[in-house]
Amino acid sequence: EIVLTQSPATLSLSPGERATLSCRASQSVSSYLAWYQQKPGQAPRLLIYDASNRATGIPARFSGSGSGTDFTLIISSLEPEDFAVYYCQQRSNWPYSFGQGTKLEIK
Amino acid sequence: QVQLVESGGGVVQPGGSLRLSCAASGFTFSSYGMHWVRQAPGKGLEWVAFIRYDGSKKDYADSVKGRFTISRDNSKNTLYLQMNSLRAEDTAMYYCSKEDDSRSWYPRYFQHWGQGTLVTVSS
User: Fold this and answer.
1) How big is the A-B interface in CB pairs under 8 Å?
2) Distance (Å) from the alpha carbon of B76 to chain A's nearest alpha carbon
3) Cys-Cys crosslink for B116: which of A14, B52, B57, B93, Cβ 3.0 to 4.6 Å?
4) Closest Cα of chain A to B64: distance in Å?
5) What CA–CA distances, in Å, run from A32 to A39, B58, B100?
């Protein structure tokens, strides 16, 4: 089973700052990795798929990179609506696991 | 637009059963793989089950294998999750999700999500 480890667990930043979130896989997932955003009381939203492709309607300030075991989600300039929990997820191997999440909070 | 509406959640005793449904609209249901994903209160996301667009393949997480059954009725645009032998640790919000690409032979990503249905297993 592939374990995804996200860091940091919590990230405290101010609007306008740059956010860098990390996801590390216990074995290679090639580029089969996605990022999701979840706000309280809401379902998750797909942001990035196949490591670096923005999903439909996702603003350009969100970008993803990486392959193999190390992946990064960058939010170039934080907007107030970006403060949420972010999850990575792999579809390379069963079971199709999620990371434990990074909470992005307002500083 | 894509709509996924879950139903069937509720309170059930340990060892009991529930059947969740997910009514889909706004897309060609029979062309997309579907998943169930759950989230225990205050916890992260856990993938539960997958069914290929034509129903020919099903996958389950180890935590539910042998107890849960995913199915679909493409004539009714509906996804199901039959949950038997429920345990306290199955308590969660259950989301159905549509994949991001049609007619994929292998599981894809979760592009659209319902609002979830809450399952509580408690005596």
Assistant:
1) 55
2) 24
3) B93
4) 12
5) 24, 20, 13
The whole-number pLDDT of residue B92 equals 98
Q: How far, in Å, CA of B100 to CA of A71, rounded?
A: 20
Q: How far is B105 from chain A (nearest CA, A)?
A: 12
pLDDT in tens, A25-83: 999 999 999 999 999 999 999 999 999 999 999 999 999 999 999 999 999 999 999 99
| Residues B97, B101: Cα–Cα separation, whole Å | 12
Say which amino acid occupies A19.
A
Interface residues of B toward A, Cβ cutoff 8 Å, are 35, 37, 44-47, 50, 59, 61-62, 95, 100, 106-111, 113-116
CB B40 within 8 A of CB B92: yes
Whether residue A23 contacts residue A73, with contact meaning beta carbons closer than 8 Å, is answered with yes
Tokens of B49: 């089950």
CA–CA gap between residue A8 and residue A102 (Å, rounded): 6
